[in-house]
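Model: Ready when you are.
Researcher: Fold this.
Model:
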Amino acid sequence: MEPELWDKLARGKCRSETEPSESTSAGDYRIKRQRTVREEAHTVRSSLDQLYRTFPTDRFSYMFPPVVFRHQLYSCLPQKTRTEIDREVNAMRSRKEIRCIKLGFTGDELALVKQDSFREHVRGYARDHLKNPLIIERFLDFVDNFDISISTNDLKKDRAFTDEDIQSLVLVGVLIVREVGTWWLSFPGAGQFMKTFLSGREKVLTMVKKAKYSSVLESELIKRGLPKRCLGMHYTIHDVIGNDLVLVSDTTSGRLLRFRH
């Protein structure tokens, strides 16, 4: 086949895959594009990005990085099963796009922090609170291959960290005692984050409980809002729904939240 003909065929193939051809109406192309956008919006990545973008770190003087709990995604993505969501989260963990932090009081409550945000926040805090911030650089590289927890033996292996180093890491807040000889990986300000997070949760649950018939529309809660010392109504609604703290029903007016007695 002549080279010119190959070029024409190649150009025609590329055009048909990316833009409407003469045989395809612009309307059909728009429909396909809209469908693609909707599908992209219904992913764990897009939901995480949306929650991260709206997280009010500036309101709290950057005391903690943007944090999203895995169970909040169950509320953001009702069209997906929890198994499907967990699978996508685990894939992002494997690619080291996010770091999982054990926060909360139950074994299945996992906080998800973007890897870049985690490292940036820890570095910033260490610069202001450690005499030797290089310890943090070594720590960040070292724990890159660990998930959620780490043992004292791992930290001391090949003399990677001394007892004094470990004490500095505890002081900064990146290590929290799990049990004798093991540590949860964490971030500076995790305690303040949980205090703020639980305060918002309690306020939303109180609103639902005190509403008529202990039921209230999601849209009504959003109108009421939360005090600025909380993390935001949208964020907190996804918490109480995703963590099964309220019963949820779909109505013609939107989701209805009902208090669990």
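Researcher: Now this one.
Model:
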Amino acid sequence: AAHLYEKSLKLWEGLSQELNFNVMFSQRGVMNLGHTLQDMRDIYRRSNANRLNGIDSEILTPAEIKAKVPAMNVSSEARYPVLGASFQPRGGVARHDAVAWGFARAADARGVDIIQNCEVTGIRRENGAVCGVETSRGYIGAKKVAVVVAGHASVLADM
């Protein structure tokens, strides 16, 4: 998992350049708070495993959390007291819509036709091989079909 994280992070760091589109990736760091002793055991285990695999990961005390996020209530009187946190400085966030548009533009440049608001209703096969898809707008023949539908992958895979 640690190597997958590192590979993923490197891909994100170069994605805007690769797509020639600003995906608005901002490396602000990722902090996971620990509210229970079990949370803290998990944080120590995960952070130590990351460091052993060469991934930057810090374990923060409540005071260190407060220094990074002054608005955070780290008092023991808080509804969910913060006992500590893991922090990965290179982690970050990207605008999901910018990522989608960046990939769409890159796909279009490579000859991919993107049809919006078009529901796939079935997958057509001949001799055990996919030959196209049935859609709400009619049949589309294809030698290859990629299933890239987020939460509906299992629905399409069952077709």
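Researcher: Key takeaway?
Model: The helical segments are 2-19, 37-52, 62-68, 96-109, 153-157.
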